[in-house]
Amino acid sequence: MAVKKIYQGILAGLICGAIVIACQKTPETKTDDRLTRHYCNDPDAVNFNKDFPGIPDNTICYYPTQLFKGSYKLYDSILDGDFKLRKLDTLPITLTALNNTRLILTGFCEKNSTTDTILLTADKYYKAMPDSTKAANNLVLNGWILCRKSDTLTGYLQKPLSDSSLVIFKFTVASDTGIYYHYGTAKKQ
What we know:
The chain has 2 helices and 13 strands; from the N terminus they run H-E-E-H-E-E-E-E-E-E-E-E-E-E-E. By secondary structure, the protein is mainly β. The protein has an 8-stranded antiparallel beta barrel. Strand 10 (144-145) and strand 11 form a beta hairpin. The model has no long low-confidence stretch (mean pLDDT 84).
């Protein structure tokens, strides 16, 4: 029994010694260079958390509207509901930033249109979509009222990563005369 207690005491001492040694902090021999980099800490920004960990610095952020804003020439292919080509068109358009995520598209509609302003919301994934409309009873409807009150626009704009001077258009217009698809590329002017 006495030998058993001695072994238990030695074992307990070894375990306590191992815990103390394991919990001791080893001295830092090198600093982590990543901790001195600055990174964007705004979730709306395209470069949110790029170069994290480091020092938060929102002055280096860039936003979705900065990618899209500018004057473009849109080369538009208009297809009918059966995907038959109806018209090729070239339009001067402008994308104007309202804030970090909201844009206005002008120049898409003809001059005699009811409206020529399309509100878009851009995200950090290089995409901008028309905002939804509200009916008289505040019911949210998919799409944006377009050139005439009977036209509704859905779809999106996409900024390709390979060429910052282009914007890809993929719009669907539902109207009283049918469905039309607008597929096009806009080149920055």
